[in-house]
Amino acid sequence: MSETILPRSGPLHRDNGITLYWLGMLALTLGLAGLAIYSQLDRLAPGTPLINLLSYKLTGYANVLLVVATAIYLAHLKFTTEAVGKWATAMATVGTIGLLVALLTRWFETHQILEEGHVPISNLYEVTIFFTALTTLLYLILESLYRRRSVGAFVMPIVLAGIGFELWLASKGQAGPQNLVPALKSYWMHAHVLANFIGYGAFAVAAAGGVMYLLRRRAEQLGRSGGIALRVLPPSDEIDMLNYRAIAIGFVTFTVATILGAAWAYDAWGGYWSWDPKETWSLIVWLTYAAYLHLRFVKGWAGNAMAWWAILGFGVTLFCFLGVNMFLSGMHSYGSLN
Amino acid sequence: MNPDTLNSEQKPTLPASSPGVRLLRFLSSMPVAIALLSLVALVSMIGTVLVQNRDQDFYLSRLGPFWYRVFDALDFFDMYSAWWFITIMGLLVLSVTAALVRHGPRFWKLSRPLRTMRPWPVKADGEFELELEGQVAPQQLEQLLRRHGFREFRQQPEGKGILLLARKGRLGRLGFFLVHGAVVLICIGGLITSQLGFRGVMNLAEGESDNIVYVQNGSEYRRLQLPFHVRNDNFTINYYNTGMPREYSSQLTLLEDGEAVAQKRITVNDPLRYLDMTFYQASFGDAGSETRITLRDLTRKGFPAQQVESAVGRTLEEGSGMKLELKELRQHNIINTAQEEDRQQRQDAGPSLDILYQSPASGNITYRVYLAYPHMLAFVPMGAETLTYANLGFSPADGRMMGLLAAYLEAVNDIAGEVGPEQRRGAFASALRRMEIPLEHAAELGSRIIHAEQLLRRHKLPMLFTLDDFVPKMYTGLQVARDPGAPLVWSACLLLVIGLYMMIYMHEKRVWLRLGDNGHRLQIRAILSHRDKHPLRNYLQRLQTELAELGQKARS
Q1: Is the ipTM of this complex over 0.95?
Q2: Which of A223, B203, B277, B358 minimizes the number of CB atoms within 10 Å of its CB?
Q3: Which chain A residues have a beta carbon less than 8 Å from that of B48?
């Protein structure tokens, strides 16, 4: 009998270890960011090349840690000892701290090397870093709640793909801090992008859960009792639940993000909805997950079909995030490759 | 078997429902809802792949006549306002409304406070039984459930024991109304916006005022008259020091009977709102900047210079068939001056003017003339698409050098027979004499003249230009919108988010606890509002542990 994924002693259950972990993470992030910024004071001239920026180096180091973390999470599938698991969590945690510190440092740096600084979520490179940081963070939250490390082996490859995309962007010379075009100068931007990426991250986690579910079910059907999938993956019920929770979080934040986007469009373009490709695709994403929730709530669907839905839904989400900017024209073209 | 012969044990047949009820059931059914959600998602994709609302030529050149006609017949070029798309959206709204009508009354009742005891459920979503080690009082159960967030309790004696009913998440049932109602309201808001509102454009040169808005209708425009005039006092572009635009802004004044009623400097994310209308900074362009240029005709003897005052957008014609079109004035030209490829070092080369030169003899050549770098020749040669840059070595406005060049070429042309280095040297010496330039500069000037001569010969440039002066005159492109649906949409959006939160995170849970055997035996049955019963199962598992603990405590 597997352990339950819920805390054992009541809804108001507090685990001091977890509290300490998150407080430590917050303190380390802020402390290191403070240190990084302090060390940069008066050292940055306008136009400092990217490779000399501390944030760029930090991003690189953090990426290495996340790559290592991914490898350990995968290894943990085979060597399921606590020691291995702890290393995986530690690497992912430090990697996330590194990315967050890098983003905070970059925020400061943009103010030094550009005439007008900005929150570093304004071009494809910056939001990709943000996406990898948020997805890892969301996963770590789930891990600390459910204490299931096997999920990491499925979420981290998505993060890895993000890192790959980020490196490719950097190799194309798209990584340097750039001045904002007038359309992006809006307070709506910060809330809009933040909410969107929490949504994207949650959908990514759900897709990883979908893959896990399918593997687990297959192993169960084949009846190989000693199989790796049965040994390391949580019971299918739990994975199913994880998918639902991730999509629920994602759906609420994505709805908020889309509304914020509409509010921004209303202030900038004179209409809250213009059937711009990005808008239309976010509607498609919304409808995809709305259908998921209907099937689940009303029809009581669960299991295989919902796992596939989560995976395909993330495909639609990815197209909305990247495909629209890369393949279609529209008003979100500032997020495109140039 | 004939249905009429069914025996009485069979469920009584439902009364024949009216067509209206049947339609309601059909529209609000889950397969229809899912089908409509998927259909909207699928057809929406068409308009993201096929660029919308362009002119006929655009589509014809890309699709060819056959597909153009097919797509045109299907309204694919303006599909989001096509009748079939509106119909699909309408059906979706209808389906949501039908769901509200069908399930509304039941959900409403369920969301009301618990007034009476509800009987022990025959069918439950989860249940368990528990032998308690110690005696537990109903108050203790209530206390425990209260800690779990249950707020509504009812109890009644039942035989020797007690039946307790606890409920939480009552408002979760209201989430259904908020979410589905909000979707309907947002669509109604959108309809109001599209039917009663408008979005148009208005281009105003600096200092000009107007009251006509052009509203796009498919690929056509209709004129719309505002009850007041809009004046563009000035339009400015602020630049970063890299030369990238930093901010576009227009100082607008609204005039009613010549009197200013509103005034604001608008920027891209900060429009002017007046009455029920909003004015957005959307675009800008050249409204005919005044320019003074000098042209030097290289095809004529002595390279005669001619100064011309004109404006951007105008075309100058000469009897010989030569045409000059003043195409575009740029105030900033950002050039990457970094030596290494991957580095970016941007520099502003200042203002430039694009001139299209057309003549029967030389064809079409586009020149880009820089104010600050007159010696830089930049041009798009005939048949090419990108600019070619070449350094003439001196400004075409340099009378001495241009004169020397002209005199030299003339002297070379006058040579009869073979032209060798010796003859060239002679021609250059005579040119120097003609220009009364002392011989001591001959070596230096000679190499510069040869360089310029080769350059002009290679590129066959018929004319050289200098931009002497300009006075920019810009127009601002305003987006003008009236959106009476927006307040409804925003309110509905708020309801949507609140409702979603309620639906997803406030599940209605009802738990019946049957306490018997003198407080030693518990039977539990629970009902969850959602079909998805996982959370309930987990919850009941936890509850069971805690109740057992409660029993243990009661014993000790």
Answers
A1: no
A2: A223
A3: 277, 280-281, 324, 328, 330
